[in-house]
Amino acid sequence: METEPKTICGGCLCGAVRYEGIGELYNVTHCHCEDCRKSAGAPFVTWASFQPSNFKFTKGKPLEIAWAGRVRSFCATCGSALTFTSQPDADEIDVTVATFDQPEIVTPADHIWTEDRISWIKLADNLPQHARGRTE
Ligand SMILES: [Zn+2]
Ligand SMILES: [Zn+2]
After folding, report:
1. Which of 54, 62, 105, 134 could form a disulfide bond with 23, CB atoms 3.0-4.6 angstroms apart?
2. What is the CA radius of gyration of the chain?
3. How far apart are CA 125 and CA 57, in angstroms?
4. Which ligand places an atom closest to the C-alpha of 57?
C-alpha cells in the first residue's frame, strides 16, 4: 500500500469536530473485533494510523472514553466514532477512515480480528485476513 504524504482532512457527522492528518498513513485495516463493532455500531470499522505528532484536531474537541485500557474518541454532539489509541502515550493514533472527507484516498491492506467477524459479512476483496491482530 502506498500513500503519498499529503494532508488528510476529516470530521464527524455534524461538523463540530474536524481533524487533519499529515504524512504517511499506515496500517489501513478493517477491524472486525467486538469492541470496534460495539463502539461504532457497525459490523466492522476501517482504521488508518498516523503518528500522533502528525495528527491534530482543528475544530472542536472530541469526547474521550477509556474502556478496557484503550481510549476511543467520539464527537460529543453527534456521536461519530473518530479515533482509537491503545494507551495514553501510544506511538500511533488510529482514525476511522469513514470519517475522512475522501475515504477513497486510502486503500485498505487487510482484515483483522476476523474470528469475531459477523457471519453475514462475506469478504470477497481478496485481502489478507488475520484471525486476531496482525502480529499474532
Ligand atoms: Zn459531530
Ligand atoms: Zn477492533
Report:
1. 54
2. 14
3. 32
4. 1
Average pLDDT on 4-25 reads 91
Question: pTM for the whole thing?
Answer: 0.92
**CA distances to 17, 52, 65, 77, 131 from 60, in Å:** 5, 17, 16, 10, 36
Question: Which residues are close to ligand 1, an ion, with C-beta < 5 A?
Answer: 12, 14, 16, 75, 77-78
The structural domains of the chain, with segments of one domain joined by +, span 8-116
> In the numeric block, which cell numbers belong to residue 97?
477512515
3-state secondary structure of 35: helix
Closest ligand to the CA of 13: 1
CA of 123 to the centre of ligand 2 (A): 16
What digits encode the pLDDT tens for the residues 15-47? 999 999 998 898 999 999 999 999 999 999 999
Ligand 1 mean position to 19 CA, how many Å? Answer: 12
What's the CATH code, domain 8-116? 2.170.150.70
Ligand nearest to the CA of 33: 2
Q: Which ligand is nearest to the CA of 80?
A: 1
